[in-house]
Design brief:
Immunoglobulin-like; Glycosyltransferase; 5-stranded mixed β-sheet; 4-stranded antiparallel β-sheet; 17 helices; about 10% strand; disordered N terminus; binds ligand 9MR
């Protein structure tokens, strides 16, 4: 057969890294039998008829047309929706437009493995312990940074001016021990602000679904205590956080090298690690997290002392913050005064009223009566917006909602209004999702901070109202994150048939194994492209396509604990609902 020039061209055209060549966009991980099941087809894949065949028997179980054509507000791309929700029998199927096909999985517990994977990722991020082969397979590795001799940076020096208290002084260069915890992200540093947000959100999801989380087996090494795996993994980072408090109650902003390490494994890192400057934001976040954790961990046998320690340290932290309400982490100002200069992430936050609100609320919920939420009445009538590491106000709302069974209307109404807006925005959505319809949805870390964040808010709304429309909207957001989107990527490493292979994560890039560590949600499309000087493989600047699966892309393809916290909180909660 003679090949035409055109077919030769197609035969050898490299597959663009930025987009999935399969024009049928689906949730690549799985659909639930009794829930909406929608795929979206790109215009170039439009066909007269679409079929769903049983993968084993080849029998057609559904056939139909694509409906509801949409036009992207950015690229003008036309798309249409294939709705096969009427198929409710678990199984594996092939969805086809006659030219391309996608494997569709329908099953109970459709996202169970993802829920487990999203938590196992934290095990893989552990800093000071060996990652064992029996739990991590080929991703096993020796312990990373031990952090048992970390230096007090001059910015964190604290001299107590009384001879008999000299043991409580920490002059610059003092060695302290601050082992354990999780690496923050693609880099190897550890930051209190982001750790607190991550744990805060994960524990909110826990409080809404204690039974589900208490029974969630993670297949990671367990400590010898009575904690369920989920809380046990979170305790790894809580224990590290406790080491970050100075004797006066203030909490160091971060534990870091002066500059980012190269793309190497921990054993090849040689920079000195420091604890740097105490800050009000870190100290209040610490107070909130410890107070919250004390309340939850106290319920488990043998954990009472741990809970007491967390609560007393929370109170010390809060007291420090009241006395130092405006110690903001301004790295440039710090560098002007002290050496060595520090150029790693700032997690800088110049407004700490939300941290005050969160800490006060959590301390009050933990029984510190003097702090009965001074902010309660004024705050919770306000509009709801999604919590992020830099704005934790609505973590306080989530904390007050608990499992929603005794929800107060002032806490609940703004959240439900927000959920209603999410649902409205999904009308005429290109991807049948409450996320991804306005440009402002796309930012650094949007897969977590906006997509999963909306998913969690929708699940609160469902719990509060029992109205299925919120649950179905949450499922639509999960579908988006797992492949039914403009790039066709399932944005979690190791899941789905087209997922990121080159995340900006040193542990994945430098370990000599082709595949990345599994279970990590990447930041996602970010039209800011703040990494454009380093990453040359963006192929689009449309908000929802500004993504590059390239390990130089820290603005669209990094991983981070707060993002996996959002993924885990969302997907575990969704699984919990669907298992009922
Ligand atoms: O690896 C760093 C990543 O963790 C941060 O999110 C990002 C933004 O602060 O910075 C990355 O480091 C890059 C640095 O900022 C600029 N030089 C290239 C570094 C990545 O190799
Ligand atoms: O998640 C952070 C995002 O909200 C900020 O816009 C961005 C730039 O400051 O930093 C992100 O956090 C990164 C941190 O600075 C360094 N470690 C990796 C984090 C994820 O990219």
């Amino acid at each position: 057969m003679k090949l035409s020039c055109l077919s030769l061209l197609f035969a050898f055209a490299p597959v663009a890294k930025a987009q999935n060549p399969n024009l049928i966009r689906i949730n690549q991980v799985g659909y639930y039998p009794n829930a909406p099941k929608v795929a979206v087809v790109e215009q170039r894949g439009f066909a007269k008829k679409y079929t769903l065949r049983d993968a084993k028997t080849n029998k057609t179980v559904w056939q139909g047309k694509a409906v509801e054509q949409t036009v992207s507000p950015w690229s003008g791309k036309r798309r249409a929706t294939i709705d096969f929700s009427t198929v409710t029998t678990a199984g594996e199927y092939i969805l086809s437009n006659g030219k391309q096909q996608q494997k569709i999985v329908i099953r109970d517990g459709a996202l169970h493995d993802l829920a487990v994977g999203s938590m196992k990722a934290f095990y893989l991020q552990r800093c000071s312990e060996p990652i064992l082969e029996e739990y991590a397979g080929k991703y096993a590795r020796p312990a990373g940074h031990m952090d048992n001799e970390v230096l007090v940076h001059p910015s964190a020096e604290h001299i107590v001016d009384a001879a008999f208290l000299e043991d409580y002084s920490r002059s610059a260069g003092t060695k302290i021990s601050s082992p354990g915890g999780w690496y923050d992200a693609g880099d190897f540093n550890k930051y209190i602000v982001n750790s607190s947000f991550s744990i805060g959100l994960m524990l909110c999801a826990y409080e809404a679904n204690p039974e589900y989380f208490n029974n969630l087996g993670l297949n990671i090494p367990e400590s010898k205590n009575s904690l369920p795996d989920y809380l046990d993994e979170i305790a790894v980072n809580l224990r590290w956080m406790l080491t970050m408090q100075d004797f006066d109650g203030g909490v160091y902003h971060k534990l870091t090298t002066p500059s980012f390490e190269g793309f190497v494994m921990p054993k090849d890192c040689h920079q000195t690690r420091y604890v740097v400057m105490k800050s009000t934001a870190a100290t209040l976040d610490f107070a909130a997290t410890m107070a919250k954790a004390s309340r939850i961990y106290r319920k488990f046998k043998g954990l009472e002392r741990f809970a007491d320690e967390m609560l007393s340290k929370a109170v010390m932290a809060y007291t420090w913050a009241k006395a130092n309400p405006e110690v903001l982490y301004k790295q440039d100002e710090m560098n002007a005064k002290y050496d060595p200069d520090v150029s790693t992430s700032t997690y800088g936050d110049f407004k700490v009223i939300d941290e005050f609100k969160w800490a006060t609320t959590e301390l009050a919920l933990a029984g510190i009566q003097d702090l009965i939420p001074q902010f309660a009445n004024e705050v919770y009538k306000q509009d709801f917006y999604l919590p992020t590491w830099g704005d934790v106000e609505n973590l306080a709302r989530y904390a007050r909602l608990g499992d929603c069974s005794k929800a107060n209307i002032a806490d609940a109404a703004p959240l439900i209004r927000y959920a209603d807006q999410c649902i409205e925005s999904a009308e005429h959505s290109s991807f049948a999702s409450a996320f991804g319809n306005v440009a402002s949805d796309f930012c650094w870390g949007c897969n977590a901070e906006c997509a999963a964040g909306k998913g969690i808010a929708l699940l609160y709304a469902y719990r509060l109202t029992n109205d299925k429309k919120y649950l179905n909207a949450a499922i639509g957001v999960a579908d988006y994150m797992l492949g039914r989107n403009a790039t066709g990527y399932c944005y979690v490493t190791g899941f789905g048939n087209y997922s990121p292979k080159h995340p900006h994560q040193r542990l994945s890039a430098a370990d000599g194994i082709d595949e990345p560590l599994p279970g990590f949600l990447v930041g996602g499309p970010n039209p800011g492209q703040q990494d454009r000087d380093y990453c040359k493989s963006y192929t689009s600047s449309y908000p929802d396509e500004s993504y590059a699966d390239d390990d130089t892309s820290y603005a669209s393809n990094e991983i981070a604990i707060n993002w996996n916290a959002s993924l885990a909180a969302f997907i575990c909660w969704l699984e919990a609902e669907m298992a009922k």
